[in-house]
Amino acid sequence: MRILICEDSVLLREGLVRLLEDSGHEVVAALPDIEGLTDAVRTTDPELCILDVRLPPTFTDEGIRAALGLRKTHPSLPLLVLSQYVEERYASDLIAAQGGPLGYLLKDRVADVAEFVASVERIAEGASVLDPEVVAQLLTRRNRDDRMLQLTERERTVLSLIAEGKSNQTIAGLLFLSEGSVEKYITSIFQKLGLEPEAGNRRVLAALAHIENTGSGTGPLTNPPLGNHPQTGAAR
């Protein structure tokens, strides 16, 4: 896979290059800031772009704005955004943007090389992978959408795991349920959110609907660790 990296930290940038190349991928460019990013994407034609949220010169939102820009110019390009902390506003903006596969992970996840590389590969293959900490802080906040108030506590838990990219089989194992029971919960979630079969990938739409309507918070849930399983199951 051809990968472009935009990360200001020399140590992390070089570390990413090394671990990705050791995993058999090609790093076509490794940039310290967003200057030249658009040209680099055009000339190197990456299959995935990894960006830090905070980049020079102000170290505020350059990376996320660059990611949103790529969503407009290269809408199908898979993106993986890395952040030191959960940046809720930035996460919501990017998750709500229309486009290709998306990953939003905390930088701590890079320490588990096998898990991180698996997440990178899943994103490139079309999955959306959200860090459990991001999901916890976004999905457990008091919701302003009346549709969300219809969800039971168990349905909210299932929806949280869907947002993390968990498969039906994995959700069943984590919650000690049968896959049939998980499919029934998911079907109920789709119905309560008004997502018809023709809506496309309803798993992603359900998670986005929940995230896009969050308000002031009540604190994070304790979520299982990030999974490495593709989305499967009859309910889509």
TrEMBL record:
Cited InterPro entries: CheY-like_superfamily (IPR011006), NreC/VraR/RcsB-like_REC (IPR058245), Sig_transdc_resp-reg_receiver (IPR001789), Tscrpt_reg_LuxR_C (IPR000792), WalR-like (IPR039420)
Residues that bear 4-aspartylphosphate: D52
Record's protein name: DNA-binding response regulator
Gene Ontology MF terms: DNA binding
Record's keyword terms, sorted: DNA-binding, Phosphoprotein, Transcription, Transcription regulation
Pfam families per the UniProt record, alphabetical: GerE, Response_reg
Species in which this protein is naturally found: Microbacterium murale
Region entry Disordered, spans: 214-236
Residue ranges constituting the Response regulatory domain according to the UniProt record: 2-122
Domain HTH luxR-type: 144-213
Domain of life: Bacteria
